[in-house]
């Protein structure tokens, strides 16, 4: 199978960004969708399954916590209850504290608007990652998840691929350089492609696409 054919197959079966799965329209590039994506990055950074992190992110939205100010009005017991109900039984209390610390930083440093972080990074992915890692609970994995998804609307960070997507690309005989990989997919499909590479890894479906 040619590389382009393999990419087409990946996009057809797994080509859905995690923001799209969450129901977040990043094309608006407004504070609320960006905040919800950052919450997903935090939740995915915890030692839980990706499905549980997604469920928790949806539960936060269902609770009405779609902006930093709305989350700030929540209580610790309320956050624990919502996270526990979403399956965060082992790390619900820790995450309930982390997410408020991270929310305080977002309000204090960026007035609740992640577009200010974008301006601060000035197109430098390393600067963006450093800024993202200042949020409580966000490490290399969480920062990479955020940039991997947000490049769809923050074009200065395109093409960005994290270790998870590139390790799968290598196993599938695809380029392990983000720029080379992007040339095979095209700019519009690249965020979907890197998400697909992560999804096929999470689904333990690499061998089928390789063989």
Automatic annotation (TrEMBL):
InterPro entries: DNA_glycosylase. SUPFAM superfamilies: DNA-glycosylase. One of its GO terms (molecular function) is catalytic activity. GO terms for biological process: DNA repair. It comes from Salinisphaera hydrothermalis (strain C41B8). This is Endonuclease. The lineage of its organism: Bacteria, Pseudomonadati, Pseudomonadota, Gammaproteobacteria, Salinisphaerales.
